């Protein structure tokens, strides 16, 4: 008879090594929640985006003892899509304060933020170039550079240099990554369904390299096409760039597309079910390696969401993502024997090869009733790798809604403990090293919480050494 762990691995449909769990020692102290508070409230813009929409990047950075958060404000009386403006908040010793707002522009999406070790704070903005009555149209990518010591002062506007004149729009799907120690950054911004334009700014303040990241090719689809990759996690470290995102194209299989149309009444539905990774050894040379498909739920119309990426000192890329096995709307018609499962998965990629993978948390039909949700890595000051995540579903017949934290040692769970926040974070940003922040024993969170609709909250958590 198969063990429960073997059945679990089969049910998840992944090729993974399931190793014994090392649970926290009895009585191990939980992380200490030092601050938990509202930052701002918002009115939904109804434009297809929202404050958490740039989930692959972050809207939160820590610079010394201060924390900066970018926000999104819906403009009254302005029609979508470009009916928002960016805001910038600072938290110091006296708490949160609004330090700057966009006084002239309009935009659709939230604005990712990054920082450098010398105190510069970088805001990625994408102001529309259209009139107020236009539904959509061209936009201009910019980087606004603030000084952490004088955040109320007017920022310096940095205009990335591109090859030619790319057709940027309000649908930017952009990603920002920074090497805080070197004072360097990279910006990716999508162009339609074909590629992403990228621009690299070096430590001397020069836009030293630019190019295109062309999407992988979907030769197996009913109509072969590029596979647009969106919501990526991007890391820049010593001029090496790592990029991991999910497929985001209109349903490519005709039989599923037509069935979904009957169910939803919509003419479109996007896939989100293939996880792709690529990297560049030296961005100043601009050559990316061949795409690696790390995970797929394409056979059962499932779902994948990239959660985070961390580049270890040896150059290995540590990937974190969520999976759902099937689209239950299609199960009866197309795969009636398939079972639903939910998983938070982890893999290590080295030199283009997946050298290890495992399921960190999982549940579903015939399995645990606990369902993992959003998750992020955090790197401590002593270089421990921690996963902070949301857990929902049911346990012992009762609903579950909590945040948990696990430490990974050699890819295995060493500890997995609850985090005693008053309102669990269901989706969140962190002050990540991918945005230029230093590794820290303080975990900063910004996001949406259970029981607090239309509110963006902050928490500061002290990790035990």
Description of the molecule:
- Helix content is 6%, strand content 48%.
- The protein has 465 residues and is mostly beta strands.
- Strands 24, 25, 26, 27 and 28 form a five-stranded antiparallel sheet that branches.
- Strand 8 and strand 9 form a beta hairpin.
- The chain is globular.
Offer a quick outline of the entry.
The protein is mainly beta. Helices cover 6% and strands 48% of the residues. Mean pLDDT is 93; it is low at 1-27.
Rg (CA only): 22 Å
- Overall, the morphology is globular
CATH class: Mainly Beta
How much of the residues is beta strand, in percent? over 45%
Tell me which CATH architecture applies here: 5 Propeller
* Number of E-type strands: 31
Q: Which ranges are low-confidence, i.e. pLDDT below 50, for 5 or more consecutive residues?
A: 1-27
Q: Report the average pLDDT across residues.
A: 93
Say what the CATH topology is.
Answer: Tachylectin-2, Chain A
Q: Give the structural class.
A: mainly beta
Put simply, the count of helices is: 3
Whole-number tally of structural domains: 1
Helix content: under 10%
Terminal residue distance:
42 Å
Specify the biggest β-sheet. 5 strands, antiparallel
């Amino acid at each position: 008879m198969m063990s429960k762990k073997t059945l679990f691995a089969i049910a998840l449909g992944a090729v993974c090594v399931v190793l014994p769990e090392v649970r926290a020692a009895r009585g191990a102290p939980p992380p200490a929640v030092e601050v938990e508070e509202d930052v701002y409230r918002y009115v939904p813009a109804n434009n297809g985006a929202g404050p958490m929409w740039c989930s692959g990047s972050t809207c939160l950075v820590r610079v010394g003892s201060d924390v900066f958060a970018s926000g999104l404000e819906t403009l009254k009386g302005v029609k979508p899509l470009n009916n928002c403006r960016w805001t910038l908040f600072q938290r110091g010793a006296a708490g949160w304060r609004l330090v700057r707002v966009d006084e002239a522009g309009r935009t659709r999406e939230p604005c990712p933020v990054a920082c450098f070790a010398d105190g510069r704070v970088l805001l990625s903005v994408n102001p529309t170039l259209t009139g107020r009555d236009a539904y959509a149209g061209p936009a201009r990518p910019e980087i606004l550079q603030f000084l952490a010591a004088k955040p109320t002062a007017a920022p310096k506007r940095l205009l990335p240099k591109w090859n030619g004149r790319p057709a940027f729009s309000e649908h930017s799907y952009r990603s920002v990554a920074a090497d805080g120690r070197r004072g360097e950054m990279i910006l990716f911004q999508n162009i339609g369904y074909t590629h992403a334009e990228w621009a690299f700014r070096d430590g001397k303040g020069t836009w030293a390299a630019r190019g295109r990241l062309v999407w992988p090719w979907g030769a197996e689809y009913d109509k072969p096409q590029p596979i647009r990759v969106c919501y990526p996690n991007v890391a820049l470290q010593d001029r090496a760039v790592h990029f991991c995102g999910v497929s985001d194209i209109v349903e490519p299989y005709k039989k599923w597309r037509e069935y979904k149309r009957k169910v939803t009444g919509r003419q479109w539905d996007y896939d989100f079910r293939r996880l792709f990774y690529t990297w560049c050894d030296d961005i100043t040379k601009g050559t990316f390696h061949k795409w690696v498909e790390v995970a797929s739920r394409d056979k059962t119309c499932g779902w994948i969401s990239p959660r985070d990426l961390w580049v270890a000192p040896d150059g290995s890329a540590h990937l974190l993502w969520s999976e759902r096995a099937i689209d239950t709307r299609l199960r009866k018609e197309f795969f009636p024997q398939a079972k639903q499962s939910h998983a938070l998965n982890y893999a290590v990629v080295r030199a283009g090869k997946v050298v290890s993978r495992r399921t960190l948390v999982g549940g579903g039909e015939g399995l645990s009733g606990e369902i993992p949700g959003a998750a992020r890595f955090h790197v401590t000051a002593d270089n421990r790798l921690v996963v902070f995540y949301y857990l929902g579903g049911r346990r012992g017949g009762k609903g579950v809604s909590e945040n948990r934290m696990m430490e990974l040692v050699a890819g295995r769970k060493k500890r997995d403990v609850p985090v005693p926040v008053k309102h669990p974070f269901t989706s969140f940003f962190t002050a990540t090293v991918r945005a230029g922040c230093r590794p820290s024993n303080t975990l900063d969170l910004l996001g949406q919480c259970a029981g607090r609709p239309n509110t963006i909250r902050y928490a500061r958590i002290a990790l035990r050494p």
